[in-house]
Amino acid sequence: MRDSMAMSAQAATQTVRLGWYWALSRYIDRETRAAGMSSTYKPKRPVPSFRALLEDLRQLIADDAKDVGDGRYPRLPEAGDTPRQYLNRVRAMLSDLPVALARRASEDTASVASIPLPQNQSLPDYYTQDFHFQTGGYLSDDSARLYDVQVETLFMGAAGPMRRRVLAAVADIVRGHDQRRLALLDVACGTGRFLRQTRLAFPRLPLTGLDLSRAYLSEAERNFADCQPATWLAANAEDIPLPAASQDIVTSIFLFHELPPDVRRRVTREMARVLKPGGSLVFMDSLQMGDKPQWDGLLEAFPVRFHEPYYRHYAIDDLDALFTEAGLVAVDKSTPFLAKLLVRRKASA
Ligand SMILES: C[S@@+](CC[C@H](N)C(=O)[O-])C[C@H]1O[C@@H](n2cnc3c(N)ncnc32)[C@H](O)[C@@H]1O
């Protein structure tokens, strides 16, 4: 039976969050304009009205609240921060803004080069740049500390609800199984936001988070301080250090748009390799061109505003062919707000 109290509480909390992040993003826009950095780029493709964006956001919040009401997953705090810790992160993001804007003005995407690497770590060239002009790229502790508030501000508070669409798909896969006997790998787990929510929803599901950034993995580990641990792997998704057919579920969230086309293919083959026959890939990334034709102008403008060197190709890449070639069969597809969610299954032996 649906728990309407929990459903309403979830909808109300998320609506307040959206309002807060909308205000933050307005503030950042204002600072960007004041610094003479607002984009004058006019996309050739259509751009949705504010009303259309709001309608999709409303649907996202309604779906999230319904899943809480139906017990698909519980009400989940976005992070383990106290309000003070959270406000410190927001303050740090705002202090970093002038530095990031200055680098954007000079098209400098190499602050990452100043971060010393652990001696035993080498990184692929495509990775060592400041994606979205992030100070320190993905390699500094400060970048890891700011990442989540930056992403939430960019998505006006919708990043958490969009990631929970992945959690909803995972919940459907786990239902009816003993979670202790399953294994889930999150490829490019970043600061572990998705895995933390998965852990809170499924306390006994064995979880592994893989990422190239040790700084982000340390932040992820801190995010797990108050819950059952996960396994963390500092590794390249092109060469996953796990045995073939070892995972029941592989998730990948907001990774592919940051990979060159050939790397996307290698990572897909690796994800398929580590999946058990019958196992599922739950994939989320940006919308692609044509997913919501009236929104294509947003996808066109995104890499003009942010340093996202592989996004244009991602936006037209044939993901269907990519996954099919790797033996991953289509199961489900949806487009929550600015994201695309695909569920694929590895054919049983
Ligand atoms: C946009 S972030 C997404 C992080 C997280 N999945 C989320 O939902 O916020 C991209 C992540 O991919 C990681 N990454 C990029 N290329 C990688 C690779 N080849 N192998 C492993 N991780 C990679 C980065 O370190 C970063 O944490």
Range of strand content: 5-15%
Order of helices and strands: HHHHHEHEHEEHEHHHEE
Bound molecules: S-adenosylmethionine
| Uncertain spans | none
Shape: globular
How much is the average pLDDT?
A: 93
Main beta-sheet annotation: 7 strands, mixed
Helix content: 40-55%
Structural class designation: alpha/beta
CATH level-1 class of the largest domain? Alpha Beta
Number of continuous helical runs: 11
Radius of gyration: 19 Å
Output the CATH homologous superfamily of the largest domain: Vaccinia Virus protein VP39
CATH architecture assignment of the largest domain: 3-Layer(aba) Sandwich
List keywords for this structure.
binds S-adenosylmethionine, about 350 residues, 11 helices, Rossmann fold
Could you explain the architecture of this structure?
This protein is α/β, with parallel strands linked by helices and 349 residues long. The chain has 3 domains: 4-69, no CATH class; 83-154, no CATH class; 159-291 and 310-346, Rossmann fold, CATH 3.40.50.150. Helix content is 46%, strand content 13%. The chain has helices spanning 4-34, 50-69, 83-105, 141-154, 159-174, 193-201, 214-223, 261-274, 296-305, 311-316, 319-325; strands at 184-187, 207-211, 231-234, 247-253, 275-286, 328-334, 339-346. The longest helix is centred in the N-terminal third of the chain and has 31 residues, at 4-34. The mean pLDDT is 93. It binds S-adenosylmethionine. The site of S-adenosylmethionine (SAM) has 20 residues, from helix 6.
